Amino acid sequence: MLELRHLSKTYEGKPLLSNVSFTVADGETVCLLGASGSGKSTLLRMIAGLESPESGAICFDGVDLAQTPPHLRDFGLVFQDYALFPHLTVFDNAAFGLKMRDQSKSQIQERAAEVLKLVNLTGFESRKVTELSGGEQQRVALARALAIRPRLLMFDEPLGALDRTLKDQVLDELRHILHETHIPAVYVTHDQEEAFTIADRILLLHNGRIIREGTPAEVWSHPGSAWAAKFLNVGNVVEGVISEKRKVETSFGVVDLRCEHIHAVGEQVGLLLKPSSTGPLKVNARVEDVLFQRDQFKVELAGGLFIHLKEAPKVGEPIQIHFDVECLSNV
Amino acid sequence: MKLRSLPAILFLALFFFYPLARILGLTLDTSVFTLDNFLLAWRALSFTFYQAFLSTFLTFLLGLPAAYLFARFDFRGKSLLRAMTAIPFMLPTVVVASSFNALFGPRGWLSFLAPSSTFNFSPFALILLAHVFYNTTIIIRIVGNALTQLDPRLEAAARTLGANPLKVWTHVILPLLRVPLLAAGLLVFLFDFTSFGVILLLGGAKFATLEVEIYIQALQLLDLPMAALLSVIQLLCTLTFSILYSRLSAQMLVPTAPRPSTARRPRTLTEKLYTASIIFLLSSFFVLPLIALPIRSITRLEADRGQRGDVQYGLTMSYYSELFVNRRGSIFYVPPAEAARNSLTYAAATVALSLLLGLPLASALARPGHFERILDPLLMLPLGASAVTLGLGFIVTFNRLLLTSHFSLLSSPLIIPLAHTIIALPFVVRALQPAITSIPERLRHAAATLGASPWRVWQTVDWPILSRAILSAATFAFTVSLGEFGAATLLARPDFPTLPVAIARFLAQPGGLNYGQAMAMSTILMGITLLGILSIEKLRLPGAGEF
After folding, report:
1. What's the ipTM?
2. Which of A12, A96, A102 is the best mutation test for B, with the most CBs of B within 10 A?
3. Domain hosting residue B521, numbered range
4. Stretch B248-263: mean pLDDT, rounded?
């Protein structure tokens, strides 16, 4: 089990990560989701031992890794753009870690063949990695990391360079392999679809802090903060002002507020509006634009709100929508 | 073919390819093929290879840690230190020889400060050190740049896969740097192989490399066919190395977009120790000789004549004031000030001639047709031929070519600027060509459609851009001519020596005063050359290549 305790790191004097703690259990895939520059890659590099935290500890199975150099950690890291060794063949790339462990020729041969089969690259052994397609390179990178039977697998934006359809396919295979091998994994991405597909648990990283933690379903239905709701594009986020106790005034009307937060009168709050037939907020608006989106239509309304509908309304048509209102914390 | 390149082509044909052909012609005389001659040639060749290998190895020994330092670490004074390591490459051989002499030689600082110590360097060690001094910058540039272009994540990947720091080097970095390492090594080897002035001045005639042996055969033994045979061997070797080098450098990846620098301040204790020791080593090795020279030129470190054993030391300007005095009253004695004047005149003539030929040639090469594409590599050939071979070619050719019955070109002072123009022309063309190419044709067309006459177009569009390049090319030609030693030492008439030739003569004479004057002249030459290097750096077009 990987355990991070109160990790902090600054970059050029500014805090990059502050007080980050989480655990990854055996067989679990934890996904760090955040915008670029939020310190995700640095976090992975610290777990790998390539950089050291300024404070806090990284433990694996209860052992503090502060004194363990990267080559003795037995962690596999799949890099963004893969970082394959351009001077080696597919086989030698996959066998690199085994060779570093001074395993016998036959052991290396056997294990490398095994992982190349796992990622469907049997027959590619003697190819140059520079001649492979992006998807194939990605598999070599995965095979290379798997070959050493790592105690932990880390992925740093591993699918960033692939196109949409290939991404879905590789993601599927990756999920399969992770379940099969039961290796705990930390997966870093800025792409929420990737995160929601692969993760058992999602950690939302913003300004160097973990602002939300939960299963994909939990995070999606209750993003918790205005920033998270906007980042995940969960629905309409609007501003409101507390007019009196338990009431909030928005440009679409006054609604009752049901939340655990304590608000003062006059305070500004972020609100998430989710369409619901039983919702308390009734909005009458004109349809401004209709966008086709695969199996549904995104309908943009006058006033800046949007909803998704199965049937496309006409532009200019008046429409009435009921919204649930969820109060968001200001992070 | 463009007519304007004709003068340069004719010039090269007459003063480069024809002399080379004459050298080749001399070796057709089979009487030169004797066992003794072959043994001599074999000895010279094997010694040349031996010293070049050794020098290259030592250059790597210093160059690789230095390249790593510059590629991976940031520290205060980094660009200054980098510039310091690059300066020797452009310094005249006599200046480097004098600097090493002033530091390590028998009359130098080291033997004064630590007499009879273990630090007494043999002449051979001095030669090797001077070669390292010259060529370390090549390793720093070529290997250092390749190291900067290396994806740092490859090292990180190797580390996470279980490679310890040593294995990261042997399995990832070194294999990936194979081509740049070979290319840099070959280039260093080529320069060490053709080194002449450093070997002659620091070692003397007993360190007979091919170059030195050519000089001895041609000038002291007057055996021109033997000198020619050695020249042909030398040419074949350098040609082979040059072809290998251009093959290798074609393989080197030219990055489309330079990687952002991965250099950072040293963090761990090991890193701090490493950077500190390499910075110390580099700054002492590259700064000390260049400081030792000027200080030695104003310091008396030995007894005056007739006061043997009574060492007087202190500051003195006498080495400089003596430069203007003819003490020996010999008719062949030339006061150093006159040698300096000769050098400046020759350098000016070289600048004029090489620009006159180089400008039209560069403009023809800037927009090459079929003919120019063939021409281009041919014009660079003089870079591969050594100056001594060029000098020999001139001796062989223009000895007989009497322009009038009483006037031979060889005995005319004009011969030196002609030889220097051959050496400077490739540099001048390489400096001008990119500038000319960089002026977009559309700019000229735009000016023309706006009503500018061709003359006005040239004046308002071409000239402002070209003037910098011309100035830079001129400075280059000037510095090359001023410091050139190999050809000048073969061609200079006794009564018209150049500054480097005069320095070499003074170094060869006994006595503290002669030595001091050699130091003084070397200091002056170094000063002028440094000014030249500085102005070339200032004039360099951004992004223009270095090698």
Report:
1. 0.82
2. A96
3. 1-26+319-547
4. 68
